[in-house]
Amino acid sequence: MNYTFSDRVSNLKPSAIREIFKYAADPQVISLSAGNPSPEAFPVKAISEISQKIFKENPIAALQYSVTEGYAPLRSHLKEYMKEKHNIGAAFDDLIVTSGAQQVMDLAAKSLCNEGDTVICEAPSFIGSLNSFRSYNAKLCGVPMDSDGINIEKLENALQTKKNVRFMYLIPNFQNPSGITMSLEKRKAVYELAKKYGVLIIEDNPYGDLRYSGEYIPTIKSMDTEGLVIYVGSFSKVLSPGIRVGWCVAPQQIISKMVVCKQGQDVHTNIWSQMVAYEFMTKYDFDGHITFLQNLYRKKADLMMNLLDEHLAPQVTYNRINGGLFIMCQLPNNINMTDFCKQAVLRKVCVVPGNAFLTDESQPCQLFRVNFSTPTDEQLIKGVEILGKLAKEMC
Amino acid sequence: MNYTFSDRVSNLKPSAIREIFKYAADPQVISLSAGNPSPEAFPVKAISEISQKIFKENPIAALQYSVTEGYAPLRSHLKEYMKEKHNIGAAFDDLIVTSGAQQVMDLAAKSLCNEGDTVICEAPSFIGSLNSFRSYNAKLCGVPMDSDGINIEKLENALQTKKNVRFMYLIPNFQNPSGITMSLEKRKAVYELAKKYGVLIIEDNPYGDLRYSGEYIPTIKSMDTEGLVIYVGSFSKVLSPGIRVGWCVAPQQIISKMVVCKQGQDVHTNIWSQMVAYEFMTKYDFDGHITFLQNLYRKKADLMMNLLDEHLAPQVTYNRINGGLFIMCQLPNNINMTDFCKQAVLRKVCVVPGNAFLTDESQPCQLFRVNFSTPTDEQLIKGVEILGKLAKEMC
Fold it and tell me: Which CATH code fits B47-283?
């Protein structure tokens, strides 16, 4: 039988990264393509203890239906935490707990975008979010980035010329895939443009806590006097992605619509995982765990950057990073990027071709993304050596 | 600020049942309005043991990112289980694990319905699913039910006259809210209509295992030679709703689209809960647990029907049930249903007004739904006594 699908999904494809993961599943392959936390990053003992405690003291609450907005103690703790840590949460704001930050992208696009409306994003940007927006038939407009974040002139041009722009999707800290962090000046400028054009901002901040060097920069949401910013947080990089818990702070009216949509989507987020997140934040040393992660990833990021300097410079360049899990590399013009990525796979090293992160994958692109959190140090050394040899051969 | 929402969600409202839950949250109130499993129904000891084992033997797999299709061992076990138990799963079918059965409703509507397309459902039907379909701006067409399931003549009339019917949404076993079970003859007739008009069926079967009396009736999906049926299963009523795990068996092409949509919605379902479901199904006495639940709920259902006979007959009538968690009662014409439900709340008993389950809530309706799984026996006795007195006073 031939099935007819809705217009919004008929052209939707699995993410290009998923296709690469098929190669990466081969245990002989060194995968620099994932975005997974390091296996060392999980507080297994704490989560195990918490889980035992839940089933000893409060099993029915963990197993019964719960409310869509989120486990009440976690929700109210996150409100306090966001206020204290980031000065986030005005009187007009509310908070919803979601099944990972990814769900916020879906709920926001569903609530805000009619088919054909425009979403502005950084180019390149996180493919998972772009695919969420695409799944509601939003038109994506990618705005190029400078080394200190989105190009403001081109952003304003997009806001002036694109029709029905519903929101700008931005990852200000250690952006995936570029590793770029938006400067304070640009954050202020972006917020001013949001005000000027009456356009909302989705500020996605999964990597914000993973700063290894440099100074903390205030979030755009902390400047939000007008109710224009939808802030998205996640436990995936600071506790566990497998538990699928994220959250969103946004104006009450927007959160209310998200709650109704979430009710029809999954009723509520797995309650055990919300309890685990709450207990870990409040009864364990959450800040200490974040410091541990910063130290763990700083070491691996430094190793990776040293390896790139040693084996890939000067032909292949990259932006040094101050945090996050990704580094974006740029090939010289005499190397075909797609060929390079394919050849790398044949030599058992997986990287992600940069065009996967563009709003139009057919655009010319010399970029590829590497990750350093998932592989062991030995794999990083071997993998970058192989990439270095390959680049020299292809030059 | 005034926010503009998408057309598809601008008229979306929280479910009427949620509003009632606000009253039901008062500990003084006897809630006959929920659909929660009994607190006694949860295999707490087993889940606690499984959870400990997971964090001892396989913690990283439980906490790391996983694949969208579902935890591989659970997925393949569910395929076998569905085949053995229900003869479900043709060569053209595949299976996806979802964040509760509710997510299947969202993924199906998203994948299959353009805005304005028609979804046919039983009238009354499960409000959570109806709201999922509404959230993609599908037009709902409710077809009345007889005591043996949907009225076939009126169903065919709807298939002939409604535009762009994308699927029929049916709950053949112990339907929520009516408690009605569709006869084998009607299941066959419905499938023939699906073939004749080339319209898909969503067969939602959350209560199928909770049969207390009468004979097993084959699922519609077991008759599916043409790839027309999307079957939906759930652990919510046989293990735990708080873990949010359901599944869907449907033709591969439909599952593929659901996978892409789910990737953008929550990446994958909480992996710990999928491991718990898998371990409980394969290492514990899952069939024995289902028998235990059948006995538990049979007792409560019998008590409830006896109480209704004693206190509400003959003015208030109801369909006797053979399984599931709900009984639908019908008030005589001289009692205003909305007034009755409001007066009941004032006397600290919550029931759900029947119009909440209609595609058009403003239609005249004399029905109200009661549940017997969540309250204690003492609460059931006291609650129905109060309803009985109220009905007599209002007659």
Answer: 3.40.640.10
CATH number of B12-43+288-394: 3.90.1150.10
Q: Is the pLDDT of residue B16 over 90?
A: no
Residue type (1 letter), A93: D
pLDDT confidence of residue B196 = 98
DSSP assignments along B187-211, one per residue = HHHHHHHHHHHT-EEEEE-SSTT-B
Asked if A52 reaches chain B (Cβ–Cβ under 8 Å), the answer is yes
CA neighbor of B132 nearest in space, from B105, B113, B111, B108:
B105
Instruction: Give the model's confidence band at B18: pLDDT under 50 very low, under 70 low, under 90 confident, else very high.
Output: low
State the span(s) of chain B assigned CATH 3.40.640.10: 47-283
Which residues of A are less than 8 Å from B17 in CB distance? none
- Residue B99: closest CA among chain A residues belongs to which residue? A266
The interface predicted TM-score of the complex, written ipTM, equals 0.96
CB B363 within 8 A of CB B142: no
CATH 3.40.640.10 placement within chain A:
44-283
Contacts of B257 in chain A (CB under 8 A): 5, 9, 12
For the cut 90, the answer to whether the pLDDT of residue A131 exceeds it is yes
> Min CA distance, A345 vs chain B (Å)?
21
The model's pLDDT over B31-75, given as tens digits with 9 standing for 90+, comes to: 999 889 999 999 999 999 999 999 999 999 999 999 999 999 999
How far does Cα B62 stand from its chain's mean position? 28
Which of B47, B134, B241 lies closest to A65 in CB terms? B241
Three-class SS of chain A: CCCCCCHHHHCCCCCHHHHHHHHHCCCCCEECCCCCCCHHHCCHHHHHHHHHHHHHHCHHHHHCCCCCCCCHHHHHHHHHHHHHHHCCCCCCEEEEEECCHHHHHHHHHHHHCCCCCEEEEEECCCHHHHHHHHCCCCEEEEEEEECCEECHHHHHHHHHHCCCEEEEEECCCCCCCCCCCCCHHHHHHHHHHHHHHCCEEEEECCCCCCECCCCCCCCCHHHCCCCCEEEEEECCCCCCCCCCCEEEEEEHHHHHHHHHHHHHHHCCCCHHHHHHHHHHHHHCCHHHHHHHHHHHHHHHHHHHHHHHHHHCCCCCEECCCCECCEEEEECCCCCCHHHHHHHHHHCCEECEEHHHHCCCCCCCCCEEEEECCCCCHHHHHHHHHHHHHHHHHHC
CATH 3.90.1150.10 in chain B: give the residue spans.
12-43+288-394
CATH annotation of A44-283: 3.40.640.10
Where are the domain boundaries for CATH 3.90.1150.10 in chain A? 9-43+288-394
From the list B128, B254, B265, which residue is nearest A106 (CB)? Answer: B265
CATH annotation of A9-43+288-394: 3.90.1150.10
* Phi and psi angles of residue B145, each rounded to the nearest 5 degrees, phi first: -110, 145
Does B38 contact chain A (CB < 8 Å)? no
- Give tens-digit pLDDT for A307-336: 999 999 999 999 999 999 999 999 999 999
pLDDT tens, position by position, B344-391: 999 999 999 999 999 998 899 999 999 999 999 999 999 999 999 999
User: Is B131 a residue whose pLDDT tops 70?
Assistant: yes
Judge whether A313 is closer than 8 Å to chain B, CB to CB: no
Q: Alpha-carbon distance B216 to B224, whole Å?
A: 18
Choosing among B15, B99, B230, B236, which should be mutated to test the A contact, i.e. which has the most A CBs within 10 A? B99
- The answer to whether A103 contacts chain B (CB < 8 Å) is yes
Q: Does A395 touch chain B (CB under 8 A)?
A: no
* Mean pLDDT, range A135-161, rounded to an integer: 97
* Exposed/middle/buried for residue B278 (C-beta within 10 Å: 0-12, 13-18, 19+): buried
